[in-house]
Amino acid sequence: MRIDIDEIAKSFAGTHALHPVSLSIPSGAMVSLLGPSGSGKTTLLRIIAGLEAPTAGRVLFDGTDATGITVQARRAGFVFQSYALFRHMSVFENIAYGLRARPRGTRPSAAEIEQRVMTLLELIQLPGIASRYPAQLSGGQRQRVALARALATEPRVLLLDEPFGALDARVRRELRAGLRDIHDATGLTTIFVTHDQDEALSLADMVAVMSMGRIEQVGTPADIRKRPQTDFVRSFIERPRLAIA
Amino acid sequence: MSDLSLHHPADVTTEARPARIALTTLILGLTAVLLLAPLAAVFAEAFRQGPMAFLAAISTPDAQSAIRLTLTISALALPLNAAVGLAAAWAIAKFDFRGKAVLISLIDLPFSVSPVVAGLSLVLLFGSSGWLGAWLALHDLRIVFALPGLLLATLFVTFPFIARELIPVMSEQGRSEEEAALTLGATGWYMFRTVTLPNVRWALLYGVLLCNARAMGEFGAVAVISGKIRGQTTTMPILIEMLYNEYLSVAAFSMAALLASLALLTLVLKTLMEWRHADLLSATRRH
Known about the structure:
The complex is a heterodimer of chains A (about 240) and B (about 290).
Chain A: E1 3-12, E2 15-25, E3 30-34, H1 41-49, E4 56-61, E5 64-65, H2 71-74, E6 76-79, H3 91-100, H4 110-123, H5 139-152, E7 157-161, H6 169-186, E8 189-194, H7 197-203, E9 206-211, E10 214-219, H8 221-226, H9 231-238
Parallel strand pairs in A: 3-8, 3-9, 6-7, 7-8
Antiparallel strand pairs in A: 1-2, 1-4, 4-5, 9-10
Chain B: H1 17-46, H2 50-58, H3 61-94, H4 100-112, H5 115-126, H6 133-138, H7 147-173, H8 176-183, H9 188-199, H10 201-217, H11 220-226, H12 236-245, H13 249-276, H14 278-284
Helix pairs in contact in B: 1-13, 2-13, 3-7, 3-10, 4-7, 5-7, 5-11, 7-10, 7-11, 8-9, 10-13, 12-13
């Protein structure tokens, strides 16, 4: 699904989290919103998901205005930074949640739900953990379960907020490849937020570098690397890798 | 108390053995003297003339009516307080709005105001010469010296218990699980039933039990507004006081023992539930 962000602005109690920003995301692309904390990238992602209402501007899904559509009706799969798995539900119940939440008329049968959950567990390469609880999973497993849960409802777009933020370097590399594979297999338009330039440049087809509530530059990873258009982009891309990675 | 860890190998972070034994003995002794001894005394006094005297004391018409009234009030107060407490805690923990600090202080108000003052303020509002007294009399509504007044006094006094239990738990959990439910297509009510409520069920249960114990035991506020009409507006605590003042000590202590048993029963229920759901509790890391 194609997504157009048209002059979206957001202010919280007088401070501008987002100055009017515009961005066009072609259908099936994998896009990264890259920037330091406080650059407005998560706010923009939440506005696309419908979790936050913009102060001004429009979000278009396939050319139709989606700004006023409720978060439920947008059908945007969202992976939260801390994964936000339902702690009192098993992995199975977590993944099945979106299907069971449907009104009676459109709800799949129990057998269909089970089939779907098992397929997704295969997709994230974690068959056999269906009966575990989130507290019994490693960070990497939680992230993959959160991804499966978001995919279960067949979303129109996949949104991920710092999907690899809380993981160690080895797991992070594995999961990056996993996310790319899932994107390529499903063809879903995917937008992920990160502060790690290496992650953004190695994984995305298109990168939007953000700073102070503005989009500084949009381009392919090669573009951004070779032709940074502002001082901020240049310094952000060239800064030494942090020791955490 | 079963694991005083006296048998564990010496650990650098624990105190020396004599200090541990002294501390443990001190706290067990204090618990026995301050909490268990008075309770034991009440039961001993209640059964001083045998179980038949106890049964006779709690089956008089006045006693029966007091028991019914107390149970009715707490049965009405609990769901009301649970609903309002949940709503207040949710609003405070999950949203930012103007007047939030004021709301938090207001919820604590019943803790700082003496129950007697709370009862008096209700009489002042709803009594025959009170602000709303004339209007109530005109419409033939009775609040003071009747069940509605007793209920209002109980609600006032027990208001903070459930909200206070829920606010820290809800604040700590944040909004992200609920937001996840919404992005998965859940309606607000479905989200509340399947995510919000299960995540706070233990805090809610604990708050309800505290609220219940207090609702049944409340004396001050209820005493002012009840008018102490025997067989009509006399709750268990009020009847106990009346009997005691009439030197009917076996009857008074029998009612007291029964009231204490009701409170103990709620404690046992809570422990049983925690014990039965121990697996789930450890899996969800919630008390």
